[in-house]
Amino acid sequence: MLEVHGLSVAHGAIEAVKDVSFTVAEGQIVCLVGANGAGKTTTLRTISGLLRPVRGEIVFQGRPIHRLPAHAVLAAGIAHCPEGRRLFTGLTVEENLLLGAHLRRDRQIEPDLSRVYDLFPVLGERRTERAGLFSGGEQQMVAIGRAMMARPKLVMFDEPTMGLSPIMIQRIMDTLALLRDQGTTILMVEQNALAALTLADHGHVVDLGRTTLQGPGEHLLADPRIREAYLG
Amino acid sequence: MATLAQQIVNGLVLGALIGLIALGYTMVYGIVQLINFAHGEVFMVGAFGAHFISLYVLPEGVPWYAALPVMFLAAVAVSVVVAMAMERLAYRPLRGAHTLAPLITALGVSILLQEVVRVFYPGATAPLPFPRAFPDGSLAVGPVTVLWTGVLALTVAPLLGAAVHLYVERSRLGRAMRATAQDADAARLMGIDTDRVTLATFVIGGVLAGVGAVLYGIHYTQIDTAIGFQNGIFAFTAAVLGGIGSIRGAMLGALCLGLVKSLAGQYAWGGAQYDYVWVFALLILVLMFRPQGFLGRPERVRA
Amino acid sequence: MTLDDAKVLVDAPGGRHANPARHRPDLLAWAGAALVLVGALLPWAAFVLPGGAYPDRATLQFFDAPHLVSGFRLHLVLLGLAGLAGRARRPAGIGVVVIAVVHLAFLIGLGAPSAGGPVALVGGVLLVWRRPAVPALSLPLPGRVLAWPALLAAFAGLLWLVSATLTAGGQSRATNPHGGAEFLAFCGFAFALVGVLSAYGVLTWLAALTQRHRIFAFTVMLACALLLPVTGAGTGYWMTVASTIGVYAATAIGLNIVVGLAGLLDLGYVAFLGIGAFTAANLAHSVPFPVAALAGAAVAGFFGVVVGAPTLRVRGDYLAIVTLAFGEIFFRAAQNDIGGLTGGVNAIPGIPPITLFGQAFNQPVGALPGGFLYYGLAVLLVAAAMVVLVNLKHSRTGRAWEAIREDEDVARAMGVRTGRAKILAFLVGATMAGLAGAVFAHKLGTVGYESFDFSESVTLLAAVILGGMGTVPGAVVGASLLFVLPEKLREFSDYRLMLFGLALILIMRFRPRGLVSSS
User: Fold this and answer.
1) Contact between B35 and C265 (Cβ < 8 Å)
2) Tell me, what's the ipTM?
3) What is the pLDDT of residue C429?
4) Where does the record place the ABC transporter domain (chain A) (predicted)?
């Protein structure tokens, strides 16, 4: 569904991502694992059109998208739930969710909003409050809901469990599994390799910008190199 | 007492006009954190656009109620086109550039526009009389008299301000604007074309400045190429005073500023010749001690 | 290092492919150079224009007297030859285009058809278009035996260039109606000359040489500057123009400290020049010049601290607006004759010329033209300002400013006392402007508030930006350009500010580090 070939991205003179390749098949949860500064976030930001690659290409459903602006990438069906959630904290929960559906002009927006509120009842109860007033876990729910409001075919999650309690982490991971079961493909970046690889159908280890290892999640979990480097 | 009341009314009229310019400043700053120094010139070219239509296009003897709408349209059209052009040609290429570059560019745009009008507009090297496109005479309330043009300004400006406020709070584009102002990258991930949002902000600023320009012209009866710079500084002061980025703040700040200028000119040391000095002193004090203004939230301001 | 090494070094990071045209002779570019040469020798106007030296030479006369290829046609020949060798095609081409366009426009204005003009223009365009992707040469630095003569020669050449630029086109439209065109064309040539030298690495080489033999270079430069009166520019008129430029250049250097080194945008800077000028004007009749000058500097410095004080609380764009507000307050106060100190709309007239040891500065000394002493004073002022700038730039304070300019929070975290450093920048800049202001007042004899309005601040800022923020020669080059051009092109004086505005926009867009800077 999504193919990344030989992707290189530079921040000024420094190449933050070097020659990364991987594919995401439809209906899978694919996880990029790697140390800090390995270029995972940069890879996601490039896929969603915030950054331009120096080399390489990104193909989504047979169509190259690496030259598209961010809004066209979203229109093509890729939503991005960014690192640190990046909610519009001064706006209400409902406004945040509606912004997720910004590009949509159909009549299904209201029902979709209800679905998000069904999934996360706490958001529905406090829909008119400013998003900045919510706890970290609740904010992550808003962020996930906001990404879903675009009705994407593929969602990219960048560190969705960062700073959350173990219970909340489990809750988020369950939600991601639910989304996958409902037919949404997921590409995620996660520091928490154990939780991520347990969930993932397929994992790619990105190191210093290159893809070094790849394979099904449980295989990677069993790999001694991974265990040593990321699972401790 | 009568003088005081009169000066308050004069100050409010000036404040209402400045407020229309201040809205443009504050919205652009909110979206792209740029002090669009040249926004005053958007106002100035609007005034000249209206002057041009009235003097060279409209046939003589057109009644004021027919001429005034045409002048508003002309001013708004000229202001909007200039505002869009400056965004596309001067500011957009600099997005993300080194810190002083946008402000210096804005300065360049301001000077360029002033000089282009001064050199090429017939007669613009001296102040030009503005067409009297509104009934003369005034409204007398007790000892206070307000020109009908002042009444118009005091009516139109708050209405427009409220309309903009509602638009930003309620509409889809307004929501996109607020999102972009908060976090442009996240807004792009929502599918918001931030370039278009920015352009739209400049357009709204242009519309308000164009309307303000005609109101200014008919009230003060003459225009020159310096009105943009002067009133632009006033408007910037007003925007900061009210809390830059805040729409209600801009209107409130403008009314305060109008009062300060008008009352300082009457009562403060040095008289009317020094009223500008007091406005600038106010600007310095506000920037130093309350840069977030009356209504601004501190975290939105780059101190 | 060999040429090929240099090429690899430059090409490697970008990973670009070497320009294939480099290996094959570029016939089109050669054709361009040839066209320039032919164009220079063809007649430029179909008939002999009345009056003046240059139009005569623009005719068929060449074929009678080939040794008379002089003026702009000589420049074209030189640039055409430079264009033959690949490296400097682009600057040479730009120079040719400027010369051709200026003269063509002038000739068309006279209704004179031209043969040489279009040919040279096409040649110049070809040269610009077929620019080679060859990096600048890196020349080896010679030892002292060679370095000193090289520096002497370089500065003598610079002296010639300055003198020739200053006098190009003559001083009065009455005697030379095509002076403006001649001047602009010469500017095109001067620009191309500098560009060609830069393409061959001469400028970088000279800069390195100057850096290594700093004191010697500075002495030679000072001597050369003081020698200007014995060149063609040695008339009272040019001395006055040059000393005015010097005063503004010194002021611009002061601004460069504030804006370029410390990164604090000051939009009201001309107020300090005004404060210095008004202080000196008020003291002119009671104390000798040095005292008045020091007083001017001190008062301006004091106000510099006052204006700088908000920097403790205000930053970035907001600080720029604060300085603008201070500048406007000064302007309004001066306009209204505050405290009877500025003369208001009547200005302060009758300021006596500087007199030291019985010698009035506006009188000629021996064979030297009148105004020479003012010129010398201006040169010393600029030299002093440059010394201050260079020393500050490489000092502890300079590094603190640099840190503040890049990121104030980080600077503070690193232990830089940011408040003190910022106020110091304002203090130094203002003092320098105040000193310049004192000279300004005496030289003009009259000081009025109009000389210190916002557009003057903008002009000074434009000078700094044009020359390159934070660079040493930048402010001098910028100030010279901005104050010579209006003097030379009076017919365009109405467009002066318009062009400055446009220049600010274009430089920020395309060369944010200034015209002089190489990067």
Assistant:
1) no
2) 0.87
3) 92
4) 2-231
